[in-house]
Task: inverse folding
């Protein structure tokens, strides 16, 4: 089979590999659709010790496919089943898992290999995080389950409710999915982004009210103006930049909730106005990854048509296009690239 293999930072190779044979408890999928992700770009640049502990590995982690072979002992799936799989599975045994927070599992098993024609899924993933698709759901849409489950975690952590004002800082694919998810909860959503092709796309999709950071000297002032001086009920950083985390804190109103969704470079810090944090009872939350429950709820949102992410796919390519796709992502010329191996 053909595959795009990650050998280390900056080293992506197109290779011919044997089609995997499922071991006991495993299934093998033929990949029908894969999506590029901002994390791919980060990982290609500097590696990712958590998501990719060992190299070489086939690259990519957002995918949906059709079961092509089933290992001994697998009851839940059969050849020909269309499924989506998350890119990790929790252990169910560690303290975090037992505390009901499997996204913080101390032994998360990560799976990579979306940019290949086939992938073998390990028993733990098969048991925890592979879900059947209805015949009507296109694979390209199902492949959104993983990033959408992450977005759901952010919105869930903030307990977003109907009628609240939610400000999403950042207009990358996850900023858009966060906005769409908050919108699905009947919140008023404002996306803060910067002039350019991608932001125009967000505007055209009608996902949210748009605040162009280039046109306002101060984003925080712009948000306060749009909220009658109060500030937002919820602000979500989807950029992973400390200066934007700071804006997220400043743009939230009394009693508000800030979600730190984008991961910043290690060692960075942000200042905190202690008076506001205390007297205005700010809630400051991190949000990381997803849970098996949210993976299923993300799929429900897609299956029911409550959330249709198709507009975020800006390009469509085969495996040959993966390098170009990641280049487009790195230079901000794409939101999501659909890879059809
Ligand atoms: Zn991703
Ligand atoms: Zn665990």
Result:
């Amino acid at each position: 089979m053909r595959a795009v293999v990650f050998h280390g930072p900056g080293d992506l190779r197109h290779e011919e590999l044997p089609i995997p044979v499922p071991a006991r408890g495993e299934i093998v999928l033929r990949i029908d659709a894969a999506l590029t992700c901002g994390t791919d770009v980060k990982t290609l640049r500097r590696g990712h010790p958590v998501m990719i502990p060992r190299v070489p590995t086939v690259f990519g982690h957002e995918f949906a496919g059709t079961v092509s072979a089933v290992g001994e002992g697998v009851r839940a799936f059969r050849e020909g089943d269309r499924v989506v799989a998350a890119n990790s599975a929790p252990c169910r045994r560690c303290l975090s898992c037992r505390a009901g927070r499997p996204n913080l599992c101390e032994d998360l098993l990560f799976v990579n290999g979306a940019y290949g024609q086939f992938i073998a899924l390990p028993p733990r993933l098969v048991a925890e995080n592979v879900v059947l698709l209805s015949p009507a759901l296109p694979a390209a849409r199902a492949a959104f389950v993983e990033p959408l489950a992450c977005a759901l975690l952010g919105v869930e952590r903030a307990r977003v409710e109907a009628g609240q004002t939610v400000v999403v800082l950042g207009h990358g694919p996850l900023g858009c999915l966060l906005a769409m998810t908050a919108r699905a909860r009947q919140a008023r959503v404002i996306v803060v982004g910067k002039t350019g092709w991608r932001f125009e796309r967000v505007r055209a999709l009608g996902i949210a009210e748009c605040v162009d950071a280039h046109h306002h000297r101060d984003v925080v002032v712009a948000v306060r103006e749009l909220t009658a001086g109060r500030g937002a009920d919820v602000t979500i950083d989807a950029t992973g930049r400390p200066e934007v985390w700071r804006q997220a804190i400043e743009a939230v109103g009394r009693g508000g909730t800030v979600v730190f969704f984008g991961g910043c470079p290690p060692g960075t810090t942000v200042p905190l106005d202690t008076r506001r944090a205390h007297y205005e009872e700010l809630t400051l939350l991190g949000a990381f990854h997803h849970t098996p429950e949210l993976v299923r709820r993300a799929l429900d949102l897609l299956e029911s048509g409550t959330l249709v992410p198709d507009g975020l796919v800006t390009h469509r390519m085969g495996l040959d296009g993966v390098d170009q796709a990641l280049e487009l992502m790195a230079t901000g010329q794409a939101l999501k690239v659909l890879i059809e191996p």
